[in-house]
Design a protein that fits this description.
This protein has 3 helices and 5 strands, in the order βαβββαβα. The protein is α+β, with helices and mostly antiparallel strands. The chain has a 5-stranded mixed β-sheet, sandwiched between helices. Bound molecules: coenzyme A.
């Protein structure tokens, strides 16, 4: 399987995004995902045969703080090292930032522990009626 990794959105089009946000009640469209990527401070993408198969995004003040906002690999591409590679590449961009935070479900804590993340207490607020976003 020939996977290419990039931190650039050059040449990336809406048509290359299908199948993300598995399990979300209100699924953002590919156009919304492209907007999310365009507005993120850093992105890390994995591409296979012209389509995006995995990505990670970070929002940052580029000084002290960064938040890893989204990480996903398409189901049929999981378990092949792709998620690990996109996160590793994103973390390389954040290596000089003091605080690197994320929220995740219990079943992926072990994935993030591999990169040095540890559990803490956190607070969150969600506007579920806005879950699908707007392009
Ligand atoms: C979590 C996710 C991004 C992992 O991507 P992936 O491509 O399947 O992961 P990789 O194959 O790169 O795995 C890298 C390492 O993490 C481990 N790992 C993967 N998923 C794991 C999990 N849920 N729990 C613990 N370890 C995990 C792998 O065994 C591998 O370990 P190794 O380096 O010792 O061999 C992917 O399963 C996914 O997209 N899940 C659905 C969306 C999601 O939960 N995203 C995170 C939201 S915060």
């Amino acid at each position: 399987m020939d996977i290419q990794y990039t931190d650039s959105l050059e040449g990336v089009e809406v048509s290359q995004f299908e199948g993300f946000f598995v399990g979300w009640e209100k699924v953002p469209t590919p156009a919304v995902l492209l907007k999310v990527l365009q507005n993120s401070t850093y992105v890390s993408l994995a591409r296979c045969e012209g389509k995006i198969v995995g990505f990670a995004t970070a929002l940052s003040d580029k000084t002290l703080a960064a938040y890893i906002s989204l990480v996903e690999v398409l189901p049929e591409y999981q378990g092949k090292g792709i998620g690990g590679e996109v996160v590793k590449r994103l973390l390389n961009k954040l290596e000089n930032i003091y605080m690197v935070d994320l929220l995740c479900d219990k079943d992926v804590e072990g994935f993030y522990e591999k990169f040095g993340f540890h559990k803490t207490s956190a607070m969150m607020l969600r506007h579920y009626d806005k879950q699908a976003g707007e392009a």
